[in-house]
Specification:
Order of helices and strands: EEEEEEHEHHHEEEHHHHEEHEE
Number of helices: 9
CATH class of the largest domain: Alpha Beta
Largest sheet: 8 strands, mixed
Structural class: alpha+beta
Helix content: 25-40%
Number of strands: 14
CATH topology of the largest domain: Ribosomal Protein S5, domain 2
CATH architecture of the largest domain: 2-Layer Sandwich
Length: 331
């Protein structure tokens, strides 16, 4: 006898935050402490298939060929539960997710992963949800996933209520060809995941000051995006990355995601800029460095990066499309 299955496959891109989401106003619902602005990337993608079945005793979650258990698996099961509740079913699901880039290393795999999972769940269960609703639901899994629902340049709002903490697109991917050269210095999974780090943010004496400063940096970024002012954009992105890591380093316990190779690349970027090359760095919650630049310089910088002993791999990215359904079926 054939088992009834509700299934869909979705793809989503990781995003690089120009101003970061770090710390929560509401930890339970993952409402961020501040607004953030990001670029969804074209090359760092996650493909996720969700199959809801009545014959499964529990959720089965595989990421890059490995079964998720413990807190990571429970986090995905809770996310699946949001959709079961909306659809009015109790069926468990099999989730198979594949990343084409290192996961858990500070390249926003949770953003692309939960965005793809959100879209696949909604499609499999035939839920008619608006982009804003999808964004809010993705945020419940991973705050930055709210931004990966959309392509191009995206703004995520903080708010006092769940339904108001959503992301929205600012500009399509073709608005501005900014290159993000991701210099991978480590593929190792970080010891302290971002979810735990968000909870530590308020223990830093710098957290409140950074949240206040981000509001001004966001205004600068919105103006820079409207005018395509790369220097203004790069300066804001680099400053906020440094402020976020200062919060991490001064949290209790302290978080130090940087490696010696990270610091070497930061110096390298600043040296290139002193030579007149438009390049700025930003770093998420991990050791790997994103180097932002413009089209005339990306190939030269990529080639030079690949010669550096600190760099294991360079992933060249541009603004990419938002989350999309690849396939859906019912059988």
């Amino acid at each position: 006898m054939m088992t009834h299955i509700l299934q869909a496959t979705a793809e989503a891109g990781a995003n690089i935050a120009l101003t970061k989401y770090w710390g929560n106003a509401d930890p339970q619902q993952r409402i961020p402490a501040n607004d953030s602005i990001s670029i969804t990337l074209d090359r760092t993608r996650t493909v996720t298939t969700v199959a809801f079945r009545p014959d499964l005793p529990e959720d089965e979650i595989l990421v890059d060929g490995k079964r998720l258990v413990g807190p990571a698996g429970e986090r995905v099961s809770r996310h699946l539960g949001l959709f079961r509740e909306r659809a009015g079913i109790a069926w468990r699901a099999r989730v198979v997710s594949e990343n084409n880039f290192p996961a858990g290393a500070g390249i926003a795999a949770s953003a692309s992963g939960f965005a793809a999972l959100t879209l696949a769940c909604a499609a499999a269960l035939k839920l008619d949800l608006s982009p804003r609703e999808l964004s809010c639901l993705a945020r419940r899994g991973s705050g930055s996933a709210a931004r990966s629902i959309f392509g191009g340049f995206v703004l995520l709002h903080t708010a006092s209520r769940d339904e108001d903490a959503f992301a929205e697109p600012l500009y399509a991917p073709d608005w501005w060809e900014i290159w993000d050269l991701i210099a991978v210095v480590s593929r190792a999974e970080k010891a302290v995941p971002s979810g735990e780090g968000h909870g530590l943010a308020p223990t830093s004496p710098l957290h409140t000051a950074r949240v206040a400063r981000v509001a001004e940096l966001n205004r600068q970024l919105l103006d820079a995006l409207a005018r395509r002012d790369f220097a203004a954009l790069g300066e804001a992105a680099e400053q906020d990355a440094l402020m976020m890591h200062a919060v991490m380093m001064t949290s209790r316990p302290s978080l130090l995601y940087w490696l010696p190779e990270t610091v070497a690349l930061m110096h390298w970027v600043q040296a290139r800029r002193r030579e007149g090359i438009p390049a700025y760095f930003t770093i998420d919650a991990g050791p790997n460095v994103h180097i932002l630049t413009l089209p005339p310089y990306h190939e030269m910088l990529r080639e030079e990066l690949q010669t550096l002993p600190e760099v294991q791999e360079v992933i060249p990215c541009r603004p990419g499309t938002g989350a999309r359904i690849i396939a859906e079926s019912e059988k």
